[in-house]
Amino acid sequence: MAESRGKPMTATEISEEDRLRADFYNFLGLLLSAPPDQMLLSQCAGLSGDETDLGQAIGAMARVARATKPQAVEREFNALFIGLGRGELLPYASYYLTGFLNEKPLAQLRGDMAARGITRAPNVYEPEDNIASLMEMMAGMIVGRFGRPASLEDQKTFWSRHIGPWAAHFYSDLEAAKNSVFYASVGTAGRVFMEIEREAFRMTAV
Q: For the purposes of burial, counting CB atoms within 10 Å of the CB of 91, is it exposed (0-12), middle (13-18) or buried (19 or more)?
C-alpha cells in the first residue's frame, strides 16, 4: 500500500516493544486491506492472549478465526467495505473527519507522506487515508521501512494528525457493524490497541 521513495536504511536500534507495535500495526493493516486467506486465518486462530485488555481481544479474535472459513470472511469483508456501490463502512480519514471522501485530511496526509519519503504503491488505487494504509505506514515508520526509524516524537506527530482523531471511532463502528462477525473481533483489538497507543503517546508529553 505504501512504499519508500528511497532505499530503506538498516534499523539497528529498534526495541522489542517497538517491533511488537510495528507487527501489530502491520497485522491490522493486512486484515483490513483484503479478506484473509486460509493461511492468515490459521495464523489468527493460533494466536493466544494474556489477561490484558489487548490480550483478551486477541484471544477472542483467535476463537472466532477458528470457526471462520475464507469464503465467509470474504463475504463479510465485501459487505463491510465494498458492497453494491459502497460497503457498510467507509474506512477513510477524510470521511470520518469531514463526512466526505478526498477532503483536506487526505491532502494533509499526502504532504506528510512526501516529507517522509512515503509514496503509494503503484498497484494501489485506494486513497492513501484508508485505515489499512495508515496502519501500514505507522509500522513502516517505527521500523525504518521508509528511511531511518522515526523518532517517538515523529511517530506521535503523525499518529496525532492522521490516526488518533478517528481510528478508534472506526474500530468501534467495526465492532458494532451489522455485517461484522470475524471483523467485530478485529474491531475490538484495533480499538484497544489505539487506546494503548493514545495513552503511551500522552505519557511522552513533557
A: buried
In the block, cell 525504518 appears at 144
Does this model's pTM top 0.90? yes
Cα–chain center distance at 180: 17
Question: Sign of the CA dihedral 121, 125, 127, 131?
Answer: negative
Q: Decide if 149 contacts 17 (C-beta within 8 A).
A: no
The whole domain housing 159 covers 14-203
Alpha carbons 166 and 85: distance in angstroms, whole number? 23
93 lies in some domain? yes
Residues 139 and 181: beta-carbon distance below 8 Å: no
pLDDT tens-place string over residues 29-41:
999 999 999 999 9
Read off the DSSP letter of residue 195: H
Flag whether 159 is in a domain.
yes
- The domain tally of the chain equals 1
